[in-house]
C-alpha cells in the first residue's frame, strides 16, 4: 500500500517536472529574456506554410523560398530598438557571409499589420541590405504565421493613445528543406551568429 503511494508520488513528480520542462523548452526559444534557447527539443514543431504580403503587394508563401535556407524574425517598423538593431546586424551577417549568403533568405515579418503596409515595409527596409526581405499581411495572416512559428507578439497601449508591440526577438533558422534548425538569439555576438548562419546555409 505504502509502496504504491510512493510509486504514484514519484510518477506524478516526474510527470509534473516533464511538463514544466516542456513548457520551458517550448517558450524558451522565443522568450527575449532567455538567451540560448533549446532548438534541438523543438525541431519539427516550428514553422511551416504561410501566406503573407511582400513589399510590392504581392502574395508570398513559404513555397517562394523552396530550396533556400531561411532566417526569419518578427517585429515592426515602429520598433525603437530591437528590430533596427537586428536589421543592422543582418546587414553585417550578410557582409560576413559574402557570396555564401546569397542563397540565404533573411526575412523580416511584421507583427504590426495595422501600421506596416507593404509600402512602409519597403521604405523602412530601403535603409538596409537589399537582400533583406520584408513581409507583412492581413491581421489574420499575421496571427496565423506567429502561431505557426511560435512567435510571441502583443500590442501594448501607450499613455499617449499610441501603441507599441512587445515581441520576441530571436531569429528563427530553417534549413533548405524548411526544417527548423535553431535560433540566433538577440544577445549572440556576431561571430556566433555568423557561425550559426553558415551552418544552416551549408546544411
Ligand atoms: Ni522590434
Textual characterization of the structure:
The structure is a single chain. With 203 residues, the chain is α+β, with helices and mostly antiparallel strands. The chain has one domain: 3-Layer(aba) Sandwich (Glutaredoxin), CATH 3.40.30. Helices cover 38% and strands 21% of the residues. It contains 6 helices and 9 strands, in the order ααβββαβαβαββββα. The protein has helices at residues 2-28, 39-42, 82-97, 118-125, 139-148, 190-202; strands spanning 51-54, 59-61, 70-75, 105-110, 133-136, 153-157, 163-167, 171-174, 180-184. Strand 1 and strand 2 (59-61) form a beta hairpin. Helix 3 crosses helix 6. The longest helix is centred in the N-terminal third of the chain and has 27 residues, at 2-28. Residues 20-43 have low confidence and may be disordered. The structure holds nickel (II) ion. The site of nickel (II) ion (NI) has 6 residues, from helix 3.
| CATH-defined architecture | 3-Layer(aba) Sandwich
The low-pLDDT segments are: 20-43
β-strand amount: 15-25%
- Number of folding domains? 1
* Shape assignment: globular
Helical coverage, percent range: 25-40%
Measured on Cα atoms, how large is the radius of gyration? 19 Å
Between the first and last Cα atoms, what is the distance in angstroms? 55 Å
Derived from helix and strand composition plus strand pairing, the structural class reads: alpha+beta
Number of strands: 9
How would you write the strand order of the largest sheet?
A: 2-1-5-4-3-8-9
The description of the largest β-sheet is: 7 strands, mixed
Q: Report the CATH superfamily.
A: Glutaredoxin
Whole-number mean pLDDT: 85
Order of helices and strands: HHEEEHEHEHEEEEH
Task: Name the hetero compounds present.
Answer: nickel (II) ion
Main CATH class: Alpha Beta
Amino acid at each position: 500500500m505504502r509502496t504504491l503511494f510512493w510509486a504514484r508520488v514519484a510518477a506524478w513528480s516526474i510527470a509534473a517536472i516533464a511538463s514544466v520542462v516542456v513548457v520551458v523548452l517550448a517558450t524558451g526559444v522565443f522568450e527575449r529574456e532567455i538567451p540560448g534557447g533549446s532548438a534541438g527539443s523543438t525541431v519539427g514543431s516550428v514553422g511551416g506554410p504561410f501566406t503573407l504580403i511582400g513589399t510590392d503587394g504581392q502574395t508570398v508563401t513559404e513555397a517562394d523560398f523552396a530550396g533556400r535556407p531561411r532566417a526569419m524574425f518578427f517585429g515592426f517598423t515602429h520598433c525603437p530598438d530591437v528590430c533596427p538593431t537586428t536589421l543592422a546586424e543582418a546587414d553585417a551577417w550578410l557582409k560576413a557571409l559574402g557570396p555564401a549568403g546569397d542563397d540565404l533568405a533573411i526575412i523580416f515579418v511584421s507583427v504590426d499589420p495595422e501600421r506596416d503596409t507593404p509600402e512602409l515595409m519597403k521604405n523602412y527596409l530601403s535603409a538596409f541590405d537589399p537582400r533583406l526581405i520584408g513581409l507583412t499581411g492581413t491581421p489574420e495572416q499575421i496571427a496565423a504565421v506567429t502561431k505557426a512559428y511560435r512567435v510571441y507578439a502583443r500590442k501594448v497601449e501607450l499613455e499617449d493613445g499610441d501603441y507599441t508591440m512587445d515581441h520576441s526577438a530571436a531569429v528563427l533558422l530553417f534549413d533548405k528543406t524548411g526544417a527548423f534548425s535553431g535560433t540566433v538569439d538577440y544577445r549572440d555576438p556576431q561571430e556566433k551568429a555568423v557561425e550559426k548562419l553558415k551552418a544552416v546555409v551549408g546544411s
